[in-house]
């Protein structure tokens, strides 16, 4: 098997830099569907939806983070993921996500228009999926 | 002339005050370190955000599809000032400096016939600005209960601002906060939030990007987020600045208390000696008289 080229990946949330290092592949929950970024990817900018980011390091180890919306800036030489909020998968619990869903529900009441409401409903549905897939009860 | 007992009480009370200011200085120093760490940790995000924003703004260009948050309303009649100050006093001129900058700014705007609206973040700024602009303050955000400042707090303020903008409540939004230069230097700063300036484009922006879903949609999503990020940064800088200012203010207070104790102790000793001398003279002259 040919070793895949590595590239620089950064995962940042407003509070801190979670991860910065050399990786071979990253799976991103992009808004148009999951995508795997590898070295020499075409320059792409995409929004991301709540989901799991899977990072594969050069030594074959993988690591997973849960992100809640944000952006990915992909260049052939590197990838930067600006997450609105990001947590390592070991540090998240069902309650955390349930709490976020609760908060979003509260916003639903106050949503000024249908478009906004639809956005929040989609967000809640995505959170539900995340809850179901990553954290089997 | 205060009596010996008065002086003794005075010294005791100044000593107690000195103990408190010393403790406050220590607390401020510890909090300052944490605040600085938080500000540092938040820096990569805002930097990258700035770079991404500049890139994408260049791609969208002066297109009509550019969101209104970026192009503005085309007017500058109504100004919204978001004034961020601390929740607590005892930090030297920190709060009044920010408030003064905001006050001068709004006076100038009012003199030019503009309408001014103010949102106060933090109690101290509200207390100061209330005296002159009570009718202009449309909202205030209380962060007193917040132990550790999170992005959520800033996001809340950002959403409020954007909601007001969407309702057409203002044309230009300016953020007031104090930039943290060092422990002894905090610079009150005014920064324009809306219309957002894209900043300098990054160098490697000649790459041709694919956009998912499309550039305008991403930009429309990115700019509100950027506003929250800017507010978050301002709040973090403010916390660091407040702690720095408090530290030096409390350091000064401790030193002043020390000086005062010295002076009072000198005074006390002099009086005590004078009294002893007086008593001796009384005894001697009494003995001579016999």
Top keywords for this entry?
heterodimer, A: about 140 residues, alpha+beta, ATP Synthase, domain 1, 2 domains, 9-stranded mixed beta sheet, globular, B: about 290 residues, alpha/beta, Helix Hairpins, Pyruvate Kinase, Chain: A, domain 1, about 60% helix, cell membrane (chain B), cell inner membrane (chain B), transport (chain B), ATP synthase gamma chain (chain B), ATP binding (chain B)
Number of DSSP strands of chain B?
Answer: 6
Q: Rounded to an integer, what's the Rg of chain B over CA atoms? A: 28 Å
Model regions low in confidence, pLDDT < 50 over at least 5 residues of chain B: none
The CATH H-level homologous superfamily of the largest domain in chain B: ATP synthase, F1 complex, gamma subunit
Distance between the termini of chain A: 37 Å
Within CATH, the superfamily of the largest domain in chain A carries the name: F0F1 ATP synthase delta/epsilon subunit, N-terminal
CATH architect. name of the largest domain in chain A: Sandwich
CATH architecture level-2 label of the largest domain in chain B: 3-Layer(aba) Sandwich
Structural domains of chain A: how many:
2
Oligomerization status of the protein chains: heterodimer
Output the structural class of chain A.
alpha+beta
Helix content of chain A: 25-40%
Domain count of chain B, please report it.
2
Number of separate helices of chain A: 2
Helical segment count of chain B: 6
* Structure classification of chain B: alpha/beta
CATH topology of the largest domain in chain A: ATP Synthase, domain 1
